[in-house]
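Weekly modeling sync, notes
Attendees: S.R. (lead), two postdocs, one rotation student

Agenda item 3: backlog of single-chain predictions. S.R. asked that every request posted to the team notebook include the full sequence so nobody has to chase files. The rotation student volunteered to paste the first one in as an example of the format we agreed on. Action items at the bottom.

Example entry:
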Amino acid sequence: MPSARDRDYTPPSAMPDYLIRHATLRQLQVFEAIVRLGSFTRAAEELFLTQPTVSMQIKKLTDAMGLTLFEHVGRNVRPTEAGHVLYEACRRMFDTLSNLEMQMADLKGMRRGRLRLGVITTAKYLAPEILGEFSRLYPGVDVALKVTNRDRIIDRMLSNEDDLYIMGQAPSDELEAYPFAPNPLVVMAPREHPLVGKKNIPLSRLVEEPFILREPGSGIRDAMLRIFDAHGPRPRVRMELGSNEAIKHAIVGGLGLSVLSLHTLTLEGTDGPVAILDVEGFPIMRQWYLVYPKGKELSLVARTFLEFAREIEPNLRKQVESMWPELSRYMHKEEQDSPPKKKKTARRRKKT
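Predicted structure, as returned to the notebook:
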């Protein structure tokens, strides 16, 4: 007996077949890439096609639709109203096809497909290592990693451009957020700074020093300022920089102190030219979260990666502790003081 879902299904033989006969999946793939990337040239590079081929595919698709799909704005292109409608249909179609391919591969005992991961800038020190381990376990999965700032990640999330996101805090309306790795924030200074080696430095002493901060809107900046606001005056901000690497170079150059994620010292270690200060209230013990919009149906590969990242959390904690052994006492204290971890649903605070 047919199910309710079967009764709602319209077979292809009963559908208008004009697009089936006149449009191809390749044309729709090219169209989707142009809208997502905002450029014929970037779409051609991503799909390994020549630009004339991309233009030809779009001309054929435009003829099949009978409507203009793009409008030119300077050197960029953006979809028309018809283009927006087609783009949403393409995304749904490709998500379905991607899930089908992964389900078929799973039935064969292997995992294939594509994982699109968007991460905030600071997470670039963590994400490639996790993706490397994941790729060794599932070599048939193609991985796309987009590293950008927090505001752009939020835009990508709202546009559903990726499968999962790595963030230090969940900022959107309603999100599913799963903690999977520690993200301690520490005070950094040049190695020769007179405060290096001092114990339990009071915040009142730290405000005498010039500080280098991330740009407004940064989660690290917000967390740091909350600590200072809770204990007294804020430090003097000497400059704002939008790059962790630029901030570390400025620290080494003696331009000031800063608060950054411990992960930013992954390559040079904690014994390099940047030192970690022992300051009251620090480190700020935060977490990395895997995030996606609530209600979104994850692909098989995305669910597999989510499970993988949560399973390797103990290993990630050990790696962070080995990078800075002093951190272990803070992490163990946090475990004793904190209740068991649960999945976190984050809601955006309404702006007033």
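Discussion: group reviewed the output briefly. The CA atoms of residues 155 and 161 lie 9 Å apart.
Action items: rotation student to repeat for the remaining queue; S.R. to check formatting next week.
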